[in-house]
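Late entry, written up from scratch paper. The run itself happened at the end of the previous shift, but nothing got recorded in the book at the time, so transcribing now.
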Amino acid sequence: MDRESAAAYGRVATTVETESGASLSVDEVNRIRAAADALFFSEESAESAVEDLRALITALVESERWSEDRAQTLLDDVLHCGSLAIAA
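Output as recorded:
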């Protein structure tokens, strides 16, 4: 864990707190948190959690609930929670 990872994790936490109930369901918030946690704590499940996050982000954009820019910012923040080698 480094300063950049911790800052990214904080941005993800702020996003899900702000959007929980507004534009994200409880399940969606849990999926985002699972990906951020898996990367931040270098869990073996990181790859599958990031794959699930990418599917969620695609669905948010395709349903026009989130803009592409907003979704990309979230994805970038989650990926920066841990090793980009794991997330790539």
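The radius of gyration is 12 Å.
(Scratch paper discarded after transcription.)
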